[in-house]
């Protein structure tokens, strides 16, 4: 009788704890950005919204500032199942499916309006579907990361000024298209190590959007900011294939709605920030310059469809992207 009671108690406990585990599953969301940046704060907002809208079935923990690895590592972790959701630059996603990185070609966008139209375009939906088919993951949303600008300890106002400089770029092949166009020596360094590399003189400069230059404090170790706007950067929110397959249809809908809303919220914050930051940097004693963008653009455009320079898209995809610009006139 005692044995029967113990067995019944054990089964009840298993049912209780098993039910709890089933009621709330834990997921890991990894990215390389700082905790004060819009990407992270909106990821926290999204995690809370998903938890509430799924009646606490999904508890998402967000790991910021490369806590779970740099971008190549977290992209690999998505495939291995060690992370469930990531933010990643389109150039890093392009290491697996090259066409998705088309938006990272230097000066491929005419202006912010061109990018904003692309973000809502059928072309982007087609490219994301291609990535999904290639990987089995689910690319859900695109967030504006900002126009990338050069920093250094000297003025760079035309492409020739950058020739031979050691320029830190992210560890994704497509960034070499820009350095090739200006004759700089590309030096791939993990994001978390850039400040120290600039401080120690391992590299002469780096390039990132203004909100990132502020958040990562690169301006502390660089005297000049050149508003080159050479790449209009964006990041994908991607749910790993194992996690996506785990979700039921109702929860998939919640994830998509919330993650897309978070992307829109973060995009607006980043756009607003980059418009006000040039004056803020001047107030910090930095030299903020307007380089000859036309000259930089002229140097980059011949490489847009050069496979040897990193182009991994078709001419048809390229023409569709350019047609979006015409439609926004």
From TrEMBL:
Name of this chain's protein: ABC transporter substrate-binding protein
UniProt-listed InterPro entries: DctP_fam, TRAP_DctP, TRAP_DctP_sf
Homology family: Belongs to the bacterial solute-binding protein 7 family.
Signal peptide start-end: 1-23
Location of the protein in the cell: Cell envelope
GO BP annotations listed: transmembrane transport
Organism the protein comes from: Teichococcus aestuarii
Short name of one Pfam family: DctP
């Amino acid at each position: 009788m005692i044995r029967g009671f113990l067995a019944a108690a054990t089964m009840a406990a298993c049912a209780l704890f098993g039910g709890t585990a089933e009621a709330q599953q834990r997921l890991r969301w990894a990215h390389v950005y700082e905790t004060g940046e819009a990407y992270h704060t909106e990821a926290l907002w999204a995690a809370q919204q998903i938890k509430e809208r799924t009646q606490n079935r999904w508890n998402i923990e967000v790991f910021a500032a490369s806590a779970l690895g740099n971008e190549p590592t977290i992209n690999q972790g998505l495939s291995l199942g060690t992370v469930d959701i990531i933010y990643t630059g389109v150039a890093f996603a392009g290491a697996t499916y090259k066409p998705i990185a088309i938006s990272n070609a230097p000066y491929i966008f005419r202006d912010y309006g061109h990018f904003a139209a692309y973000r809502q375009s059928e072309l982007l939906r087609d490219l994301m579907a291609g990535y999904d088919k290639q990987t089995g993951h689910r690319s859900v949303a695109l967030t504006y990361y900002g126009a990338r600008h050069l920093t250094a300890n000297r003025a760079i106002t035309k492409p020739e000024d950058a020739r031979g400089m050691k320029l830190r770029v992210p560890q994704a092949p497509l960034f070499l298209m820009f350095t090739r166009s200006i004759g700089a020596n590309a030096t791939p360094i993990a994001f978390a190590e850039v400040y120290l590399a600039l401080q120690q003189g391992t590299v002469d400069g780096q390039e990132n959007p203004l909100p990132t230059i502020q958040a990562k404090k690169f301006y502390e170790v660089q005297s000049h900011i050149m508003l080159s706007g050479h790449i209009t950067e964006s990041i994908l929110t991607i749910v790993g294939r194992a996690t996506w397959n785990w979700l039921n249809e109702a929860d998939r809908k919640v994830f998509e709605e919330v993650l897309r809303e978070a992307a829109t919220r973060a995009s607006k914050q980043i756009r607003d920030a980059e418009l006000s930051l040039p004056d803020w940097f001047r107030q910090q004693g930095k030299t903020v310059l307007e380089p000859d963008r036309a000259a930089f653009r002229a140097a980059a455009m011949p490489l847009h469809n050069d496979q040897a320079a990193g182009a991994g898209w078709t001419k048809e995809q390229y023409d569709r992207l350019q047609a979006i610009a015409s439609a926004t006139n």
